[in-house]
Design a protein that fits this description.
β1, α1 and β2 form a beta-alpha-beta unit. The protein is α/β, with parallel strands linked by helices. α2 runs parallel beside α3 and α3 runs parallel beside α4. It has one domain: Leucine-rich repeat, LRR (right-handed beta-alpha superhelix). It has a nine-stranded parallel sheet, with no helix packed on it. The chain starts with a strand and ends in a 37-residue tail after the last helix. The protein is built from ten helices and nine strands.
Length: 295
């Protein structure tokens, strides 16, 4: 069940705490998106977030212009979030506009029980490679799933992205890189980027990156460079799905595209053999992000 608080910014600190504690006793998800939380100082916002009841495990703070807060104010706000939260949505908050040192502290302030972290649509392309690496490195090791979609990473060089992604914790098993314009990268550049992602990552979302616009020869090469640790890839495009299925039906051998058992789950024609399944759309991603649209 998803709940929202109406007239959020009109409530006093005590009214807000009371509303959270009394109105959400049976909810599991608290939606505070589009509440203009940047207008509310941490002195009143932090106590309210700390008062979230233990039954709430999903907190949506997306689309709140949190990047307009001072670094210190945002750190206090994030640090106050109740420890019951397992999924934290900070998507579309202009976090890439924050001074990198403060943003890294914001990341390290995330409650230790958060497993799924949405950082999509935060203009992280604005961070230089060192700063981006620091921010990603300071995400707590309890986080196992990170959404980095829609951060315009096509504006970063492959070397910058490889350096930054190489600093992601080895505790992460799922990364979303969809909607990042990666069609602009050559296969050599994509290979460098993918190779830098921790080998612990099993699920990778590459949908909506325009990869279907590559030629057949480029697609053939692309499937060769997929790291062996990946067990699910969301290509999110029917052309890629069809091309992959047809290729596996006999045009070429499996190792040509995948290496040795590098994907457990890409072609439905091999499901019967217990080797592969098709991943389409966003079917593997649970819970799906509520912040799919930019400001």
């Amino acid at each position: 069940m998803i709940h929202r608080i109406h007239n959020f910014n009109r409530l006093t600190q005590f009214e807000l705490i009371k509303a959270i504690q009394q109105s959400f006793a049976h909810a599991t998800r608290l939606d505070l998106s589009y509440m203009f939380l940047s207008h509310r100082e941490s002195a009143s916002l932090a106590p309210a977030l700390a008062a979230i009841p233990s039954n709430i495990t999903y907190l949506d703070l997306s689309h709140n212009f949190l990047g307009n807060k001072t670094g210190e104010d945002l750190i206090i706000t994030i640090k106050a979030i109740a420890s019951s939260i397992h999924t934290l949505d900070l998507g579309h908050n202009l976090l890439g506009e924050i001074e990198a040192t403060d943003l890294a502290k914001v990341m390290s302030s995330i409650t230790p029980n958060v497993k799924t972290l949405y950082l999509n649509g935060n203009r992280f392309f604005k961070l230089n490679s060192t700063d981006l690496a620091k921010v990603l490195a300071d995400i707590p090791k309890n986080v196992t799933s990170i959404d980095l979609s829609n951060n315009i990473f096509d504006r970063k060089s492959a070397s910058d992205l490889a350096f930054a992604f190489g600093n992601i914790s080895s505790t992460v098993s799922e990364i979303n890189l969809s909607d990042n314009g990666l069609y602009n990268k050559t296969n050599t550049e994509l290979a460098k980027i993918l190779a830098a992602i921790p080998s612990t990552v099993k699920t990778l979302d590459l949908s909506n990156n325009g990869l279907e616009n590559k030629s057949d020869a480029e697609l053939t090469e692309l499937f060769k460079i997929i790291p062996k640790n990946l067990t699910k890839i969301n290509w999110g495009n029917h052309k890629l799905k069809t091309y992959f299925e047809n290729s596996l039906k006999g045009k070429t051998s499996l190792p040509l595209y995948l290496g040795v058992a590098s994907l457990v789950g890409v072609a439905s024609v091999l499901v019967g053999a217990g080797l592969f399944q098709v991943i389409r759309g966003n079917t593997y991603s649970e819970p799906s992000s509520p912040s799919n649209t930019p400001f």
